[in-house]
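Sample intake sheet
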Amino acid sequence: MTVITKGSSGVQLKWEATADKLDQYTISSDNSEPIETTGTRIILQLKDESDQYLDDVALRALIEKYSEFIPFPIELQRSVNRPESVPDTSKEPDADGTIPMKTVTKKVLEWSVVNNKKPLWLRPVKDCTQADYSEFYKQTFNAYDEPASHAHFSVEGNVDFKALLFLPSEVPYELSRDMFASSARSLRLYVKRVFINDKFEDLIPRWLLFIRGVVDSEDLPLNVGREILQQSRSLRIIKQRLVKKCVDMISDLAATNETSYQSFWKNFGKYIKVGIIEDEKAREDLVPLTRFFSSKSENLTSLVDYVSRMPSDQKYIYYVVGESRAQASMSPALESIKKKGYEVLYVSEPIDEMTLQNIEKFKDKDIFDVGREASIELTDEEKSEKEKKNNDFENLRKYMKEVLGEKITRVEVSTRLVDSPATLVQSEYGVSPNMQKYLRAQAVVENDDKGQFANIFNQAVLEINPEHPIVISLKKMHDNQADSEDAKDNINLIFNTAALSAGYVLDNAAEYSKLVTRLMTKMASS
């Protein structure tokens, strides 16, 4: 590499070094083409296998990528075709002596400015219009949608940087196939307006992967790499500020335009849920942004609205897990809560369930899974009544456990059932049917051959309704005849029906169908 420079002293000097030994160089007087006034000329010698950098298209692409916002013009010389009039020697001059002309195309060298984009983030916010932001967003990120919102700000103090963030209104193509695709990262890092990278994983957490924007730092070195970033205190401060601004931007959208926010939630709500699960520092700010289906709202509802509708005697926020909203709403475990007029959130995705488990409490209200054994706190009177009924049905409960074996952990008298004979709930350390299906699928993907999900009901508790005619009849049947095929059939029918209503997939649906047919035939003939 050779650098020729001329300063105000008027002496033109030459600096020379090789790429492998830049610390060993020579400086001498230069007698090559003089530089007018002052300036610098850099000459690079390319390796034979690097001749692609002599192509003006490749050079233009590199300049546009890394230096499109440099504050001084960068010109690139290229060969272009230009029309030119020249005498047509194949024709005789006209009678008046006019020489015939023809147009030919000639290649000429021409200089043109490559970096003609203006760094919008450097302009004062008051001087930027919505059209400016929209145009910048589409040009810079090759987007076709209008941004749902943007945040244009600067930070000064321990770290100085400027940023312009955008909230897309549509899911970027890369994220439509993989919600955590690394190729979808588009938060562009600049140092003094020189583009560094847009794939740094440590610049913003993965739950904000959908954010588009630019960050221009004055403090980071131009040779910044991942290792430098990971050790940089400046980066940690930048990341904290970026996350805060992103949350503020999303919160403002939710507060000012519920229609646009519903659309945002449909596209990006799963990322907010991941943020609640993974980002403890941001969790408190993200919880009010969540939306769920509910028993008392046609549209998605927030926890803020849920709490505002709670009756004065309701102590907890309730949710129920189901394969779908409709299936969740029909869960027998809801019967006593519905009778009291309490609102219930319907959860149909494993990530929703994990989100609520991580929130645990909102506005001093504990969040309970109705499908879990300990989800409803009982009064002393209710505990006493349950204990008495458990004693009354102790023989039947033991017999039902014996018939069902390892499918359940035990049988209990229920305090939550009103109309149904039984329901299947999870013990304290069990997981919901939906989560079990998810874990099964993960085990298949990860080729898990340990069989840890083989006995999927082993954490389930079967709760029976002591007031239901079927349960009362079953108790009498057992009292009169300790072990009968009819009793076993009824117990299996109760269990399988409860399992279906709770969202489980039966291991042998055909046997269940035969069981129902057999019992119905007996009822018809009796």
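Comment: Residues 2-66 form one domain. The first strand starts at residue 2 and ends at 6.
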